TrEMBL record:
<dbReference type="InterPro" id="IPR012675">
    <property type="entry name" value="Beta-grasp_dom_sf"/>
</dbReference>
<dbReference type="InterPro" id="IPR036010">
    <property type="entry name" value="2Fe-2S_ferredoxin-like_sf"/>
</dbReference>
<dbReference type="Pfam" id="PF01799">
    <property type="entry name" value="Fer2_2"/>
</dbReference>
<dbReference type="InterPro" id="IPR001041">
    <property type="entry name" value="2Fe-2S_ferredoxin-type"/>
</dbReference>
<dbReference type="InterPro" id="IPR052914">
    <property type="entry name" value="Aldehyde_Oxdr_Iron-Sulfur"/>
</dbReference>
<dbReference type="InterPro" id="IPR006058">
    <property type="entry name" value="2Fe2S_fd_BS"/>
</dbReference>
<keyword id="KW-0560">Oxidoreductase</keyword>
<protein>
    <submittedName>
        <fullName>Xanthine dehydrogenase YagT iron-sulfur-binding subunit</fullName>
    </submittedName>
</protein>
<feature type="domain" description="2Fe-2S ferredoxin-type">
    <location>
        <begin position="1"/>
        <end position="62"/>
    </location>
</feature>
<dbReference type="InterPro" id="IPR002888">
    <property type="entry name" value="2Fe-2S-bd"/>
</dbReference>
<dbReference type="Pfam" id="PF00111">
    <property type="entry name" value="Fer2"/>
</dbReference>
<keyword id="KW-0479">Metal-binding</keyword>
<keyword id="KW-0408">Iron</keyword>
<dbReference type="InterPro" id="IPR036884">
    <property type="entry name" value="2Fe-2S-bd_dom_sf"/>
</dbReference>
Length: 150
Protein backbone atom coordinates (compact mmCIF):
# COMPACT_ATOMS: atom_id res chain seq x y z
CA UNK A 1 0.00 0.00 0.00
CA UNK A 2 1.20 3.46 -0.88
CA UNK A 3 1.53 5.49 2.33
CA UNK A 4 0.42 8.58 0.37
CA UNK A 5 -2.95 7.09 -0.58
CA UNK A 6 -6.00 8.95 0.67
CA UNK A 7 -8.87 7.25 2.42
CA UNK A 8 -11.12 8.28 -0.47
CA UNK A 9 -8.93 6.47 -3.00
CA UNK A 10 -8.67 3.40 -0.76
CA UNK A 11 -12.45 3.26 -0.30
CA UNK A 12 -13.22 3.69 -3.97
CA UNK A 13 -10.35 1.89 -5.68
CA UNK A 14 -9.38 -0.85 -3.24
CA UNK A 15 -12.61 -1.62 -1.38
CA UNK A 16 -15.20 -0.81 -4.09
CA UNK A 17 -17.10 1.46 -1.70
CA UNK A 18 -18.02 4.15 -4.19
CA UNK A 19 -20.55 6.14 -2.14
CA UNK A 20 -18.05 8.81 -1.13
CA UNK A 21 -17.37 10.96 -4.16
CA UNK A 22 -14.32 12.79 -5.41
CA UNK A 23 -15.59 16.31 -5.94
CA UNK A 24 -12.91 18.93 -5.52
CA UNK A 25 -10.09 16.76 -4.07
CA UNK A 26 -9.21 19.72 -1.81
CA UNK A 27 -11.61 19.20 1.13
CA UNK A 28 -13.83 22.10 0.13
CA UNK A 29 -16.99 20.46 -1.21
CA UNK A 30 -17.71 17.68 1.30
CA UNK A 31 -18.71 15.08 -1.30
CA UNK A 32 -16.13 12.72 0.21
CA UNK A 33 -17.29 13.04 3.84
CA UNK A 34 -17.25 9.81 5.85
CA UNK A 35 -17.21 9.06 9.57
CA UNK A 36 -14.07 7.97 11.41
CA UNK A 37 -14.87 6.82 14.93
CA UNK A 38 -18.21 8.61 14.50
CA UNK A 39 -16.65 11.97 13.58
CA UNK A 40 -16.89 13.66 10.20
CA UNK A 41 -13.77 13.69 8.05
CA UNK A 42 -13.03 14.68 4.48
CA UNK A 43 -11.68 11.42 3.10
CA UNK A 44 -9.84 13.18 0.25
CA UNK A 45 -7.58 14.83 2.84
CA UNK A 46 -7.09 11.84 5.15
CA UNK A 47 -4.25 9.40 4.59
CA UNK A 48 -5.37 5.79 4.92
CA UNK A 49 -2.15 4.86 6.70
CA UNK A 50 -3.18 7.05 9.67
CA UNK A 51 -6.34 5.06 10.35
CA UNK A 52 -5.14 1.79 11.89
CA UNK A 53 -7.71 0.37 14.32
CA UNK A 54 -10.21 3.16 13.55
CA UNK A 55 -13.87 2.58 12.74
CA UNK A 56 -14.74 3.96 9.31
CA UNK A 57 -18.38 4.38 8.30
CA UNK A 58 -19.33 5.28 4.76
CA UNK A 59 -22.83 5.89 3.41
CA UNK A 60 -22.93 2.18 2.58
CA UNK A 61 -22.76 1.44 6.32
CA UNK A 62 -25.42 3.85 7.60
CA UNK A 63 -28.40 1.56 7.06
CA UNK A 64 -29.28 -1.31 9.40
CA UNK A 65 -29.48 -4.20 6.93
CA UNK A 66 -32.39 -3.46 4.60
CA UNK A 67 -33.72 -0.69 6.85
CA UNK A 68 -32.50 2.74 5.76
CA UNK A 69 -30.95 5.07 8.31
CA UNK A 70 -33.54 7.67 9.46
CA UNK A 71 -31.57 10.35 7.57
CA UNK A 72 -31.71 8.30 4.36
CA UNK A 73 -35.48 7.89 4.74
CA UNK A 74 -35.93 11.60 5.46
CA UNK A 75 -33.81 12.60 2.44
CA UNK A 76 -36.07 10.47 0.25
CA UNK A 77 -39.28 11.72 1.88
CA UNK A 78 -38.29 15.38 1.56
CA UNK A 79 -36.65 15.10 -1.88
CA UNK A 80 -33.38 16.34 -0.37
CA UNK A 81 -31.31 15.49 -3.42
CA UNK A 82 -31.45 16.00 -7.14
CA UNK A 83 -28.48 14.55 -9.00
CA UNK A 84 -27.39 12.64 -5.87
CA UNK A 85 -23.67 13.29 -6.27
CA UNK A 86 -23.28 15.07 -2.94
CA UNK A 87 -25.89 12.97 -1.10
CA UNK A 88 -23.54 10.35 0.43
CA UNK A 89 -21.33 13.08 1.89
CA UNK A 90 -24.38 15.04 3.05
CA UNK A 91 -25.76 11.95 4.81
CA UNK A 92 -22.49 11.08 6.56
CA UNK A 93 -21.97 14.69 7.55
CA UNK A 94 -25.52 14.93 8.91
CA UNK A 95 -25.06 11.74 10.93
CA UNK A 96 -21.83 13.09 12.40
CA UNK A 97 -23.41 16.47 13.05
CA UNK A 98 -26.31 14.93 14.96
CA UNK A 99 -23.81 13.09 17.17
CA UNK A 100 -21.98 16.39 17.81
CA UNK A 101 -25.24 18.03 18.88
CA UNK A 102 -26.10 15.10 21.18
CA UNK A 103 -22.64 15.54 22.74
CA UNK A 104 -23.45 19.23 23.36
CA UNK A 105 -20.88 20.71 20.98
CA UNK A 106 -21.71 24.32 20.07
CA UNK A 107 -21.31 25.85 16.62
CA UNK A 108 -20.45 29.35 15.44
CA UNK A 109 -24.14 30.32 15.64
CA UNK A 110 -24.98 28.69 18.99
CA UNK A 111 -26.46 31.52 21.05
CA UNK A 112 -25.76 30.15 24.54
CA UNK A 113 -22.52 28.18 24.83
CA UNK A 114 -23.51 26.86 28.24
CA UNK A 115 -26.85 25.44 27.10
CA UNK A 116 -27.55 22.32 25.09
CA UNK A 117 -27.51 23.37 21.42
CA UNK A 118 -30.96 23.73 19.86
CA UNK A 119 -30.91 22.35 16.34
CA UNK A 120 -32.92 24.97 14.47
CA UNK A 121 -32.50 25.73 10.77
CA UNK A 122 -29.67 28.22 11.38
CA UNK A 123 -27.73 25.64 13.40
CA UNK A 124 -28.25 22.98 10.73
CA UNK A 125 -27.12 25.35 7.96
CA UNK A 126 -24.00 26.36 9.88
CA UNK A 127 -23.08 22.81 10.86
CA UNK A 128 -23.61 21.52 7.30
CA UNK A 129 -21.80 24.43 5.62
CA UNK A 130 -18.85 22.20 4.70
CA UNK A 131 -21.03 20.21 2.32
CA UNK A 132 -21.95 21.81 -0.98
CA UNK A 133 -24.84 20.88 -3.29
CA UNK A 134 -24.48 22.07 -6.86
CA UNK A 135 -28.19 21.43 -7.50
CA UNK A 136 -29.28 23.71 -4.67
CA UNK A 137 -31.32 21.20 -2.65
CA UNK A 138 -30.35 22.96 0.59
CA UNK A 139 -33.88 23.82 1.73
CA UNK A 140 -34.94 20.18 1.53
CA UNK A 141 -31.68 18.96 3.09
CA UNK A 142 -32.21 21.24 6.09
CA UNK A 143 -35.84 20.09 6.37
CA UNK A 144 -34.87 16.40 6.25
CA UNK A 145 -32.14 16.79 8.87
CA UNK A 146 -34.42 18.88 11.09
CA UNK A 147 -37.10 16.21 11.00
CA UNK A 148 -34.65 13.52 12.11
CA UNK A 149 -33.18 15.77 14.79
CA UNK A 150 -36.60 16.37 16.30
Amino acid sequence: MDTRETLLDTLREQLDLVGAKKGCDHGQCGACTVLVDGRRVKSCLTLTVTLDDREITTVEGLAEGDTPHPLQAAFIEHDAFQCGYCTPGQLCSAAGMLAEVRAGWPSAVTADLNATPRLDDDEIRERMSGNLCRCGAYVNIVTAIGEVAR
